């Protein structure tokens, strides 16, 4: 698997970006809309599963194109696989709607890669037989995904409160992750070794990284945007919320008229589909600016072909089929800290990101990556006062930033665990720690004052509510008394 450079959170997917999804088209279906999926090829037609029907809508016009009978597209968009309540899995030709293959073996309704019979089956299309059957789940299997970087790994979520990672090659469960609640949705974050159930890190054997508690009811659906940088979550609380996968912070929230059962985003990030328990699904389209269109065209034109015959004939000549063609791809050079991360040299990566006056967000992103890799202690160990100085100065500068506080408090705790017994040996480090303590004390006083202010405001608001409720029940001839009471309060 190729090394992916450190991802630094960008502002391209902020609230303003998601507000561009406007003019919702509401379409009434035959029952609850339980699944949505866009075709991977343009114009990105949408498959909607409602009750026992599978409908296909045009990504260009939003009109109904075909009606078949939960389904997923093949990577080329030409085939569609669907599981149904009759325990079957069927493969359809998208254009003709012809049934090409039928797989039998499940004994209960089929969802995604699993079934209500608590099994997960991997099918061979040619022979129409199950090449692997996994039976470790003990309850309904309602969600699953395949890892893009390794198609031999399949993750499934079940109502038995577990997520399991199956290795198809070894025909066994490689990782089991215990969850507090029944699992409704599972998504693998590209290139990170992280599963979004409640953000679970599988590289550390299934250790939860963070719990995002912004929803008030069950989260029923998850999906990623085309960059893999934003996670969309739909819930029974009528909301779809957007999260930054770098910081796991919510960046946008949209309210819908009914409980949300399914969410899907088209591969080009222009169509947002939301299915609801009321049997209605919403289709919103994002207006693409001329600047964005131009950048897409530039990316498409980036690969180019070169041959001697091409240059001899001129740019306007397309060339013959037997011409030698060499595709050139432009590779972005890695930053210095990425080069060290690639070699697992965590201490040098941290020194590099601190040495060149990089933004606080870049440094925090690298620190977060070290936490994910369980390499923070390695990066901070074995230092002298000269190499500790920039780390402590960064912590002092940004520890009161609400976006960074939780992470930097953890960094400070690790530093104290490692060097707490050696502080008396360096006057410089002792002075920096005193400055850190002073800044933390100031921040704590501010938080205490804000808490007291919030309590006072709650008392005032409660008094005002009581005043208004009393005034509403006073007789008309007691209006002066009500006015005097309100004035006194």
Can you describe this structure?
It is a single chain. A 4-stranded antiparallel β-sheet has the order 1-28-27-26, with no helix packed on it. Strands 2-3-4-5 form a 4-stranded antiparallel β-sheet, with no helix packed on it. A 4-stranded antiparallel β-sheet has the order 6-7-8-9, with no helix packed on it. Helix content is 29%, strand content 30%. The model is unreliable at 302-310 and 481-489 (pLDDT under 50). The relative contact order is 0.08. β15 (153-158) and β16 (162-167) form a beta hairpin. It folds into 2 domains: 15-286, 7 Propeller (Methylamine Dehydrogenase, Chain H), CATH 2.130.10.10; 341-489, no CATH class. The chain is an alpha+beta fold.
Q: pLDDT under 50 segments (min length 5)? A: 302-310, 481-489
The CATH topology assignment of the largest domain is: Methylamine Dehydrogenase, Chain H
- Tally of DSSP β-strands: 30
The name of the CATH superfamily of the largest domain reads YVTN repeat-like/Quinoprotein amine dehydrogenase
Write down the Rg: 28 Å
What is the overall pLDDT average? 75
Give the C-level CATH assignment of the largest domain. Answer: Mainly Beta
Derived from helix and strand composition plus strand pairing, the structural class reads: alpha+beta
Biggest sheet, strands in spatial order? 1-28-27-26
Net shape: globular
Count the DSSP helices. Answer: 11
Summarize the biggest pleated sheet: 4 strands, antiparallel
CATH hierarchy: architecture of the largest domain: 7 Propeller
Span of the ends, CA to CA = 68 Å
Assembly state (oligomeric): single chain
- Helicity level: 25-40%
Number of domains: 2
Strand content: 25-35%
């Amino acid at each position: 698997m190729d090394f992916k450079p450190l991802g630094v959170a960008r502002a391209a997917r902020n609230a303003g970006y998601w507000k561009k999804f406007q003019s919702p088209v509401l379409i009434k279906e035959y029952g609850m809309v339980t699944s949505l999926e866009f075709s991977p090829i343009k114009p990105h037609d949408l498959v909607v599963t409602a009750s026992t029907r599978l409908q296909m809508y045009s990504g260009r016009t939003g009109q109904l194109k075909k009606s078949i009978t939960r389904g997923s597209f093949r990577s080329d968009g030409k085939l569609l696989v669907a599981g149904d309540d009759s325990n079957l899995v069927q493969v359809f030709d998208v254009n003709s709607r012809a049934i090409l293959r039928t797989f039998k073996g499940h004994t209960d309704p089929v969802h995604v890669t699993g079934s209500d019979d608590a099994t997960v089956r991997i099918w061979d299309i040619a022979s129409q037989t199950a090449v692997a059957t996994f039976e470790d789940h003990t309850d309904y299997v309602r969600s699953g995904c395949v890892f893009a970087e390794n198609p031999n790994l399949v993750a499934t979520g079940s109502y038995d409160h577990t997520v399991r990672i199956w290795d198809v090659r070894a025909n066994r469960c490689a990782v089991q992750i215990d969850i507090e609640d029944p699992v409704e949705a599972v998504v693998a974050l590209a290139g990170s070794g992280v599963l979004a159930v409640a953000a679970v890190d599988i590289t550390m054997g299934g250790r939860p990284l963070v719990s995002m508690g912004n929803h008030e009811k069950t989260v029923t659906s998850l999906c990623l945007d085309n960059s893999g940088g934003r996670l969309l979550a739909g819930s029974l609380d009528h909301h779809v919320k957007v999260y930054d996968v770098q910081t796991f912070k919510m960046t946008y929230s949209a309210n819908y008229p009914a409980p949300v059962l399914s969410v899907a985003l088209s591969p080009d990030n222009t169509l947002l589909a939301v299915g609801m328990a009321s049997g209605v699904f919403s289709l919103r389209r994002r207006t693409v600016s001329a600047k964005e269109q131009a950048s897409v065209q530039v990316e498409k034109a980036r690969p180019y072909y070169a041959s001697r015959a091409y240059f001899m004939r001129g740019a306007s000549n397309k060339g013959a089929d037997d011409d030698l063609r060499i595709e050139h791809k432009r590779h972005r050079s890695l930053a210095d800290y990425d080069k060290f991360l690639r070699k697992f040299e965590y201490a040098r990566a941290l020194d590099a990101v601190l040495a060149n006056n990089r933004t606080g967000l870049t440094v925090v992103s690298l620190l977060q990556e070290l936490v994910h890799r369980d390499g923070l202690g390695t990066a901070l160990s074995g230092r002298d006062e000269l190499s500790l100085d920039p780390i402590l100065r960064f912590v002092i500068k940004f520890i009161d930033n609400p976006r960074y506080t939780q992470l930097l408090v953890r960094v400070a705790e690790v530093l104290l665990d490692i060097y707490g017994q050696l502080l008396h040996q360096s006057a410089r480090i002792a002075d920096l720690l005193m400055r850190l303590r002073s800044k933390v004390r100031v921040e704590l006083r501010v938080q205490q004052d804000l808490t007291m202010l919030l309590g006072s405001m709650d008392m005032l608001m409660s008094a005002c509510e009581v005043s208004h409720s009393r005034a509403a029940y006073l007789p008309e001839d007691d209006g002066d008394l009500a006015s005097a009471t309100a004035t006194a309060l």
